[in-house]
C-alpha cells in the first residue's frame, strides 16, 4: 500500500473560493435529499419545486396577485400564470376576482394545499431533526450557531436578485 504525499495547505484565495462553492453544493444536495425522501411517502401527484414555492408563498400570503407572486419568486409573470393554472387544475389554488381591480385575480391556497404543506413541513422537520439528533453535540451547536449567518446569506442573495430584477425593468 503506497502512502499519499502530504498536500500543501491551500492558499487563502483557493479556500475563499472553495468554501462558498462547497456551501452552495451542500445546500442544494441537502434540499434534494430531503425532497427525495419526503416524496417517497406522499400520496397524490408530485409537485415540482416551483409549484411548491408558489403554494408556500400563497399559503403564507393569501390574496396576493400573480404579479406580486412573480416578483417575490423572481419569475416571469407568464411563468407564474402557468403555475397558477396547473395548481388550480389540481385543486390546490383558487382564484378570486380582485374587488379593487376587476381585471386582476387574488390567489388563495385551498384547504387541501394548506393541509399538504403542513404535513410536508412536519415530515421535513422530523426527518431533519432525526438526522441532526444523530450528530455529536459540537456539530449540533455549530449548526444552531450557523442559522443566523445562513439567514444573512439568504437575505443578501434576495437583495441582489431584487436589485438585478429592478435593473432589468
Automatic annotation (TrEMBL):
PROSITE patterns associated with the record: HTH_MARR_1, HTH_MARR_2
> Known Pfam families for this protein?
MarR_2 (PF12802)
> Gene3D superfamilies, alphabetically?
Winged helix-like DNA-binding domain superfamily/Winged helix DNA-binding domain
Q: Can the keyword Transcription regulation be found in this entry's annotation?
A: yes
**From the UniProt record, which GO molecular function terms apply?**
DNA binding; DNA-binding transcription factor activity
HTH marR-type domain location: 20-152
Q: Which keywords label this protein?
A: DNA-binding, Transcription, Transcription regulation
**Region Disordered: start and end of each range?**
1-20
Q: Which InterPro entries match?
A: HTH-type_Bedaq_tolerance, HTH_MarR-typ, Tscrpt_reg_MarR-type_CS, WH-like_DNA-bd_sf, WH_DNA-bd_sf
**Superkingdom of origin organism:** Bacteria
Report the protein name in the record. DNA-binding MarR family transcriptional regulator
Species of the source: Kitasatospora cineracea
Amino acid at each position: 500500500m503506497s502512502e499519499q504525499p502530504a498536500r500543501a495547505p491551500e492558499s487563502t484565495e483557493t479556500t475563499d473560493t472553495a468554501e462558498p462553492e462547497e456551501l452552495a453544493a451542500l445546500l442544494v444536495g441537502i434540499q434534494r435529499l430531503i425532497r427525495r425522501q419526503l416524496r417517497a411517502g406522499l400520496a397524490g401527484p408530485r409537485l415540482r419545486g416551483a409549484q411548491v414555492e408558489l403554494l408556500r408563498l400563497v399559503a403564507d400570503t393569501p390574496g396576493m396577485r400573480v404579479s406580486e407572486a412573480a416578483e417575490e419568486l423572481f419569475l416571469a409573470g407568464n411563468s407564474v400564470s402557468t403555475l397558477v393554472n396547473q395548481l388550480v387544475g389540481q385543486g390546490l389554488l383558487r382564484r378570486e376576482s380582485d374587488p379593487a381591480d376587476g381585471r386582476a385575480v387574488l390567489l388563495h391556497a385551498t384547504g387541501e394545499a394548506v393541509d399538504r404543506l403542513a404535513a410536508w413541513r412536519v415530515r421535513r422537520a422530523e426527518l431533519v431533526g432525526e438526522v441532526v439528533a444523530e450528530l455529536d453535540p459540537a456539530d449540533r451547536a455549530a449548526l444552531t450557531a450557523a442559522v443566523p449567518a445562513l439567514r444573512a446569506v439568504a437575505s443578501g442573495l434576495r437583495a441582489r436578485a431584487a436589485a438585478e430584477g429592478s435593473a432589468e425593468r
